[in-house]
Design brief:
single chain
């Protein structure tokens, strides 16, 4: 199978799983907000999950990504070490998760008191189980990425998505309210861990065993995890600390608005997420084989496709956020619209980062990436301290979008230093994508006054997509023949 066919197959598999996950998450969101929970309870659950994410960071300590990096390398050089790499990384994570869970259990009351929310404490107690299964679930997904088995990632993710939706509905119907919803998340992840664990066992059994592990290999795995931990910590600052601060300075209802905007953004990011997850390991393979020129072309083409999709997406979000939120989620969630409009910038740069972030790990640039992520993460924290009390939940979105943009620009600079990108060619593609965006925007603006309900909203979106598709093909940015070849 050629590299391009492998990438297309991986993108198709992971994008399908991601669509299913997002569909399940969308169903969960609608059920929680419209049927089972009040806005206050909805925000409280996601505030608790944001707290769990901090604990999950310390429970993983970058070990899974370090493991994946060494698996990718040793698949090419010495596959007898693969089992040792996986066993060592699992042992590391068992110790770290155990320590984190003990500390989390002891301090759950203090955390709830700091937020002035006694209702948080029982949720935090259940969070111990959430932390364990979430760490295990994340480990499996990253492990399959390191092995280049993205179809197993897709299968495990699909089980998790369907399981969470099913268990959440089951527990909520049984009358367990917010606690039932959280228990549903735990049960769904647990089922996927069992299935994914079986996949990993079968995968490892196909590699030869060795009685002589390479000296110092476990130490190298642990050492390489340190910059990855710093990088993941900064990632948590972007993705979760803002939610924690909105909950601290404002209310659970504000958390609900903020999280809803982020969940919509996550849906829009799905194609880039699948592309990045699939192509990232190929950079490590190319570097091991000293084929950096080929790696540069893969990254450039990925970046062109991302910009072609997400420049128009940003314009569409800005123009249609208000009617979209109102007609899909109801007038009670109108406060989400301005947050979503600001998040459109975050969506663009996050899409670029999806094909850049993990690629730096596989190229051995984790330390430099961690420095940039740490600095901009600290800046994000400081801006949130100022903007959230001053202008509310929109301030959190502004801070996140600005700081994330700075971080992604730095990451692209690191990629350029490693691969020497052809910027003149990229500039031409970016300008063409910009022209397509302007034309699509003009069409949507002309039709915007006709948006009076959900049906007309979908019709305007369809027209915008049609204009984008026709111009993308006409401009040569999308090759229909090449797409058919790889389908």
């Amino acid at each position: 199978m050629s590299l391009s066919q492998r990438i297309v197959r991986g993108v198709t598999a992971t994008f399908g799983a991601e669509l299913l996950r997002l569909g399940a998450q969308g169903a969960i969101t609608l059920l929680l907000t419209r049927v089972f929970l009040s806005p206050d309870e909805y925000g409280l659950i996601f505030l608790a999950i944001a707290i769990f994410s901090i604990a999950t960071l310390f429970g993983t300590l970058g070990i899974p990504k370090s493991m994946a990096r060494f698996v990718t390398e040793y698949r090419e050089t010495d596959d007898t070490q693969i089992r040792h790499i996986v066993r060592s990384s699992i042992a590391f994570n068992v110790v770290t998760v155990g320590l984190v869970c003990v500390l989390f259990f002891l301090f759950r009351g203090a955390i709830a008191a700091a937020y002035g929310e006694p209702r948080l404490e029982p949720l935090l107690a259940l969070g111990i189980a959430f932390i364990v299964v979430k760490v295990a679930h994340g480990y499996l997904l990253i492990a399959f990425q390191g092995f280049g088995e993205v179809t197993l990632t897709a299968a495990t993710s699909t089980v998790s998505s369907v399981g969470r939706l099913g268990f959440i509905v089951l527990f909520l119907i049984a009358g367990f309210s917010a606690y039932g919803a959280l228990a549903g998340f735990v049960a769904g992840y647990l089922v996927s861990v069992v299935v994914g664990g079986y996949f990993l066992y079968r995968l490892l059994s196909s590699y030869p065993a060795t009685d002589s592990p390479e000296p110092g290999l476990s130490t190298r795995i642990g050492r390489y995890s340190l910059p990855l931990t710093a990088s993941q910590g900064a990632n948590v600052l972007y993705k979760r600390v803002d939610t924690l601060m909105v909950g601290f300075f404002l209310t659970p209802v504000a958390v609900g608005f903020y999280e809803l905007a982020k969940q919509i953004s996550t849906f829009v990011i799905a194609p880039a997420d699948s592309l990045g997850f699939t192509v990232a390991p190929t950079f490590g393979e190319h570097k091991s084989s000293e084929r950096l020129e080929r790696a540069a072309r893969v990254y450039e083409q990925s970046l062109e496709y991302v910009l072609l999709v997400y420049l128009p997406a940003v314009a569409g979000i800005v123009l249609l956020a208000e009617p979209g939120v109102r007609f899909v989620f109801g007038d009670a969630y109108a406060g989400t619209a301005p947050v979503l409009q600001v998040f459109s910038v975050f969506v663009l740069f996050q899409a670029i980062d999806k094909i850049t972030n993990d690629s730096l790990d596989y190229l051995g640039r984790a330390t430099e990436r961690a420095v940039g992520k740490g600095l901009t993460g600290a800046l994000n924290f400081g801006l949130n301290l100022v903007l959230i009390p001053a202008i509310g939940v929109v301030g959190a979105a502004m801070s996140t979008a600005l700081c994330y943009a700075l971080m992604v620009c730095y990451n692209v600079y690191l990629i350029d230093r490693e691969l020497e990108l052809h910027w003149r060619r990229l500039a031409t593609s970016i300008a063409t994508a910009g022209g397509v965006t302007v034309a699509m925007t003009a069409a949507v603006v002309a039709l915007q006054p006709f948006v009076t309900g959900l049906v007309t909203l979908l019709a305007v979106i369809a027209v915008g997509v049609a204009v984008w598709a026709v111009l993308s093909v006409a401009s040569g940015l999308v090759d229909i023949y090449e797409i058919r070849t790889h389908m």
